[in-house]
Amino acid sequence: MKRIMILCAAASLLAAGCAKQKHVGLRDDADSVAYIIGMNVGMNLLRMDSTLRADVVCEGLRDAMRGATRMTREEIEDSVKDARELAEVFSTIAGILESLLPGGDGDAG
């Protein structure tokens, strides 16, 4: 949860860069740093989940910067809990499948 909050805090700095403009001009060093932060957050998000919709991520950033988010803290915590539970299920399934591979702990191969 702490990692998600830190990521959200860093990503919120990018809300202005998610404007519906096709290309944002980099007018000064601060703009360049903001763009680099945006690239870094984007690359990290892709590593975590390439199915995330950038427009929804940007909307979340804009909403956070405005101080008017759509989700309550409880809804966020519930969503994070559900995601963790789902990740645990997939991890368990992956472990079972790995045990079936040759050289795994199972009897296959």
Largest sheet: none
Q: What are the secondary-structure elements, in order, as H or E?
A: HHHH
Span of the ends, CA to CA: 40 Å
Mean pLDDT: 79
Low-confidence stretches: 12-17
Helical coverage, percent range: 55-70%
Number of domains: 2
Number of strands: 0
Structure, described:
The protein has about 110 residues and is mainly alpha-helical. It has two domains: about 1-70, no CATH class; about 70-109, no CATH class. Helix content is about 65%, strand content about 0%. The longest helix has 28 residues, at about 75-100. The radius of gyration is 19 Å and the shape is flat.
Features of this protein?
mainly alpha
List the helices and strands and how they pair.
Layout: H1 2-12, H2 29-48, H3 54-66, H4 73-100
Question: Can you describe this structure in just a few lines?
Answer:
The chain is mainly α.
